[in-house]
Amino acid sequence: MAEWVQGLMDSMGYVGILLLMVLENVFPPIPSELIMPSAGFAAARGDMNLAVVILMGTLGSVIGTLPLYYVGRAFGEDRLVAWADKHGKWLTLSGKDIKKADDWFDRHGSKAVLFGRMVPGIRSLLSLPAGMSEMPMGTFLLFSAIGSALWSALLAGAGFALGENYDRVEQYVGPASRIILGLLAVAAVAWFLRRKREQEHAEV
């Protein structure tokens, strides 16, 4: 993976960074914690400009958020509520749960998008609830851009500072992303079991 990423950047330059960061949001197995440090190392070698590297990383990341945002927007709260009321029982999910989640995102969505764009494992997934809650496009793009710029700058700066050891960034951040996804999975299972018990008590 590292050789492919480096080869694409060597052949396409800044456009390669932009393309890779777009793909990273659509196909999470391509990690930003490998792309941006590698680009930062290229800047340290003098092959690229660090500021332009960060700009391309940010732009690619923001563009990459749009497909899932539009999927969420097309699905919409009303359709999701109707689906949950009709088919969600086996997931212990109801339309009321969807509305509560949507209300929470309406209140805290900007902060969720801003900080979530800097959390490995969920950074691309936040586009779905943002679209479903019909977050205004301008607001979504603004907070996505700020969070993405901070994340891109952090990763590229680390790669610039570490030089040939830029791959250490992925070695540290990669396990962190897997831990975060694991915790989210545990939380989802715990929520499912709790709701299942509540349903069983309600039916007694």
Automatic annotation (TrEMBL):
For membrane topology, the record states: Multi-pass membrane protein
**Keyword Transcription tagged:** no
Q: Indicate where this protein is primarily found.
A: membrane
Q: Does the keyword Kinase apply?
A: no
Transmembrane ranges, per UniProt, are 12-30, 50-71, 140-163, 175-193
Name residues in a coiled coil: none
Keywords on record? Cell membrane, Membrane, Transmembrane, Transmembrane helix
| Source domain of life | Bacteria
The protein's matches in Pfam families, at most eight in alphabetical order, are given as: VTT_dom
Compartmental location: Cell membrane
Please report the stretch or stretches of sequence annotated as the VTT domain. 30-159
This one is known as VTT domain-containing protein
